[in-house]
Amino acid sequence: MSSHQIPEENLPAEQEAPHGAVRVADEENPFADPGLPPHEPRVQDIDERAAKRSERTVALLFTVSMLATVGFIASFVTIPHDKSIFVFPLGHLNAMNFALGLTLGVALFTIGAGAVHWARTLMSDEEIADERHPIEASPEVRAKVHADFKQGAKESVIGRRKLIRNTMLGALTLVPLSGVVLLRDLGPLPGTKLRHTMWSKGKLLVNMNTNQPIRPSDVVVGSLSFAMPEGMSEHDENFQSEIAKAALMIVRLQPGDIKDKRELEWSHEGIVAYSKICTHVGCPISLYEQQTHHALCPCHQSTFDLSDGARVIFGPAGHALPQLRIGVNDEGYLEALGDFDEPVGPAFWERG
Hints:
Pfam family, one: QcrA_N
CATH topology of the largest domain: Rieske Iron-sulfur Protein
CATH superfamily of the largest domain: Rieske [2Fe-2S] iron-sulphur domain
Family: Belongs to the Rieske iron-sulfur protein family.
GO molecular function: 2 iron, 2 sulfur cluster binding; metal ion binding; monooxygenase activity; oxidoreductase activity, acting on paired donors, with incorporation or reduction of molecular oxygen
Helix content: 25-40%
Domain Rieske: 245-335
Strand order of the largest sheet: 3-4-5-6-11
Structural class: alpha+beta
Membrane topology: Multi-pass membrane protein
CATH architecture of the largest domain: 3-layer Sandwich
């Protein structure tokens, strides 16, 4: 739209030079201050029809956000949590997760896009210079504020009405607890289940690769293998949560190389069984140095000496790996003689 098609009263007026601006440097003012650049009006500033179009665009974006939010709630209520769909090129995805992510993303994006379009096309974009002023209040203002506060406290009779004061403080103290109670719906409390695993007396040690019980002859000196309790299956619904506590690391040492007395008592012919879960942040330990008998966590390099009670010799782990006491049953298979004597994983005091 050219300027001659716009009504004259809508055209911007000539901008005056900013107050105090020095256009040309001289001896008294060696640095020129050109002030702010002249303001250039947008088409929405001078054409109401363009402004209406921007208004409708912003309203459309906000409406799409509302519809996406309704879609988010509907997806959560109606889509089964185990339903999967194929989305090219992402492949097979959980239908509920895809719908929730898509609708929430659209809802948030359109709110942001609407706000940005509103600010860029309809809100005032003219820069205004303001002279700096002292941040600190003057003595007169501070004195007045203090006086007003004292007067307000006096008029509230909070000093004389102790019953009101005490009950008000009690109400303000207790009301945040309602939010704490809502945290209960985040999930069931763990109780003491984090202190126990599926290991118990008589449970056979099953090789995680072959799913077969382990005989002492299957474990050679210097080898590292991983085991799980008898009766566990990867198809079990709670397999992941249980194996995260029960995963076992089996190493065979020369009995003479074992320095810790209890470790030797809890072993069988030099075969020791330790938790595979690092005591730092719970990563699975998978590296073993045969010559030094050191087990290394690949996440943060915590190192444990398996010949000396699996104590920490390097890294951020807080305590040694829990050991599982093992023996041999009548059929010659390795079996557990109980559960771990302490919780597996990181930080004992966090384990419930």
